[in-house]
User: What shape does this take?
Amino acid sequence: MSEKIKVIKKIFAANEKIAEENAAVLEENQVFTVNIMGSPGSGKTSLIENTTLNLKDKLKIAVIEGDIQGSLDAERLNRLNVEVVQINTGGACHLNSSMIQSALSSLNLKTIDLLFIENVGNLVCPAEFLLGERLRIMTLSLTEGEDKPQKYPLMFTKCEALVLNKMDLAPFLSVNPEIIKKEAQKINPKLEIFPVSCTRGDGIKEFSEWLKKKISTL
Ligand code: MG
Ligand code: ZN
Assistant: This one.
């Protein structure tokens, strides 16, 4: 085994160990945690906003917001009166489990039912880093094109649901959502797919209901 591969294996093993610790803490406190991944601009923050508006009367929601820098998304979510913790990765292109571990220590977990983690906008390596979450969801915008499942299969494999956003733009694009769905399910036959428009709110109710059912299994 090359030195480089050894180092990478060690990084993943260390990450997984802390992810397991996070999962135990979250379970102990009955917090259902959702890791949301996807490219920049695919609608991660918008999905959290829309879903929060739908569920916040029934569930106590908090958000861990991951960004390379700045707090624009955290400020957006703060307006919804949910607790938001900002993580700035300072250049790193994904969140890891030790960043989540320190973010968890600043939340009052006992009072939280649903915790969203918005990962750094990136379709590649966030899929490789477990955080201790119960559920992994990816957003993909129709504007990203039909080829993403074939080009970035790992993300589609690791997620339980795909939220296909910006469906309202379909009439203006030469992108066929059916092809994206077909290719995505070829890679991951169990993948749940929710076509939505976060700007119009279409499909959010269906997604929220599905999520609520998942949470009830905790
Ligand atoms: Mg965002
Ligand atoms: Zn990365």
